[in-house]
Amino acid sequence: MSAREKFLSDIKEIRRRAREHLSEGAVTQNYGGKVDDAIALLNHAVATEIVCILRYKFHAVCATGLASEAVKEEFAQHAKEEEEHLDLLAERINQLGGKPNLNPEGVGSRAASQYAEGENLVDMIKEDLVAERIAIETYRERCATSATGILRLGCCWSVSSRRRRSTPTTCTISS
Q: How many of the other CB atoms lie within 10 Å of CB of 101?
């Protein structure tokens, strides 16, 4: 049997097992990580995204200055993107059989970034950049320290999506 034929037969077997074990949810038998740990890490990311959404929304409303209208639109767009991140994280937690922690009580202490408003437009932009750098660094660290499973569980997506508008990063996971 050629390598291609073996691969195709393996795919057929994988597909068969996936259908057979569909009721067991999103985590497969060969997943090597700890689901509870992954859910905890993802819930920390949920809190970070909530803080980012609130900060960007505040900036979208309160920004003033010569270029404030264009910047307000940019802040609003970032708030929407952060909300999309939050939705993806919450959905992945749910898929893993966990419960996304959306409780506003204690969200600031669970988040990696801080809620900092800034006194003026420049301060607001700086605070947002600091928060983005914190998020990227913590997500990268969580990906690296969570060994093989976290990429499949949805952590590194946020590093990738943030990269488009922030400092370039890498997130290399070996599985």
A: 19
Mean pLDDT of 133-141: 90
Give the whole-number percent of the chain exceeding pLDDT 70.
Answer: 74
The set of residues, in sequence order, having a beta carbon less than 8 Å from that of 17 and lying 6+ positions away, is none
- Give the mean pLDDT of the chain: 80
Q: Kindly state the helix (H) or strand (E) to which residue 62 belongs, with its residue range.
A: helix 35-62
In which residue are the tokens 């097992």 written? 17
85, exposed or middle or buried, with CB in 10 Å at 0-12, 13-18, 19+?
Answer: buried
Amino acid identity of residue 136, one-letter, is I
In Å, how far are 1, 9, 18 from 12, measured between CA atoms? 15, 5, 10
25 vs 95, higher pLDDT:
95
Residues 6+ apart with CB under 8 A from 15: none
The per-residue pLDDT for 156 is 45
CATH class of 35-163: mainly alpha
Give residue limits of the domains in the chain.
35-163
